Amino acid sequence: MSNKRAVIAVIRVTRPSFRNDHNKFAFAIHATFLFVGFVLTITGHAALGDGVFSSTSSDKVGIDNWNQFEDHYAFVYTNPKKGSKKVLVKCSVMDRKLLVETLCEDISQPIHLEFDADGYIEENISGNYFVFYNNLEKLANGLEKEVISMLCYSTSSIDSSR
Predict the structure, then answer these.
(1) Could you tell me if residue 156 is inside a domain?
(2) Which letter does DSSP use for residue 121 in this model?
(3) Best-predicted range by mean pLDDT among 70-79, 119-128, 140-149?
(4) What CATH number should be reported for the domain holding residue 91?
(5) Which one, of 74, 93, 94, lies nearest residue 33 by Cα?
(6) Which residue intervals of 69-135 are DSSP H helices?
(7) Is pLDDT at 52 greater than 70 in this prediction?
(8) Is residue 160 part of a domain?
(9) Residue 158: inside a domain, yes or no?
(10) Are 106 and 152 in contact (CB under 8 A)?
(11) What is the pTM assigned to this prediction?
(12) Domain range for residue 78?
């Protein structure tokens, strides 16, 4: 199964509601983390607090309130197969760009990526998840190469033959 099909499968199973194009983009990033084995433990407003790394909870949570804000998103994950370290992913909207900051609890320097939504999201399309996204394979592979593999985890879930 291609990365695009796998990430779309995660999105279909989760059945999110999208209010805008950046919702689609941020959720594709979230779905990529789920696809490679991460477990969502905090989302929305609670993931923006100062104590996300000190929280002892590692319970899986749903996506309630993941898009409660119009221009930013936050997710905290663990990967039980790779240890119990937490990873914070914050996405901020700036014009048609999505700025993604990721931080692992034991790494002091965040990893910053910037995506132009026009290269990945079809504007104002509703319905079929496959037509929402352009270059979803590139997004998933880029996240794995530039973020996930650089954090406190290594993963071979995504094909590295790009």
Answers:
(1) no
(2) B
(3) 70-79
(4) 3.40.1000.30
(5) 74
(6) 129-132
(7) yes
(8) no
(9) no
(10) yes
(11) 0.86
(12) 3-150
| Residue 137 banded pLDDT, cuts 50, 70, 90 | confident
Q: How confident is the model at residue 156 (pLDDT cuts 50, 70, 90)?
A: very low
* Terminal CA-CA length for the chain: 15
Residue 76 has pLDDT above 50, yes or no: yes
Site of tokens 């190469």: 145
Residue type, 50: D
What is the number of domains present in the chain?
Answer: 1
What pLDDT score was predicted for residue 94?
93
Nearest to 102 by CA among 93, 120, 117, 114: 114
Side-by-side strand order, sheet with 39-43: 39-43, 72-79, 83-94, 97-104, 111-116
Round to whole Å and give the CA distance between 27 and 105.
22
With respect to residue 155, please indicate whether it lies within any of the assigned structural domains: no
